[in-house]
Amino acid sequence: xSGSSERPENRGGLERWERTGDDGVEDFGIFRVRRFRxxxxxxxxxxxxxxxxxGDWVNVVAxxxxxxxxxxxxxxxxxEEFTLEIPxxxxxxxxxxxxxxxxxxxxxxxxxxxxxxxxxxxxxNPAILDNRCYTYRIRNxxxxxxxxxxxxxxxxxxxxxRAQIRAAVADGRIRHALVVVAFWWDEGSRDVPPGR
Length: 196
Fold this sequence. Notes:
Layout: E1 18-27, E2 32-39, E3 46-53, E4 57-62, E5 68-76, E6 81-85, E7 88-90, H1 97-109, E8 111-112, E9 117-122, E10 133-138, E11 142-143, E12 155-161, H2 165-170, H3 177-188
Parallel strand pairs: 4-10
Antiparallel strand pairs: 1-2, 2-3, 4-7, 5-6, 5-12, 8-11, 9-10
């Protein structure tokens, strides 16, 4: 696995900030916004901070027996554009990330394949987010059912030869940062047999 699920240790001289107060939480459904204060170990001063609390995420690099990558095209309201991405979503409470990966692939694309293989784990934005994103590979993906979309999703399923992914990232057709990381891991582990 290219990314560890363990957080890195502090090996330098830095000290942890001490939380000194909680200024409340606002719940927005898929995430909560927490405002709090923490004390700098260097200056001793309290500072205000904001953290977005949300569930962990999964992304899936699914490849067909013909080495095509299963992609989804959808309108994203954050950038107000259509994006080309890999399937993914939120890990449900208590759900193992590998199971969430297989579920998201099936729901968003109608595809299923071999057992998910963990490629890596990242902290999407550790400055403000408290979650992790797990990236899995699912080989031998084939269409097995119809899409099962959430009410707020409209998705077009497309496939692309795996050999064209690097060009799609380079020319901007694929720009989602977590998807680019997923393809970086996939590229680096292509020659590793399943179950390594």
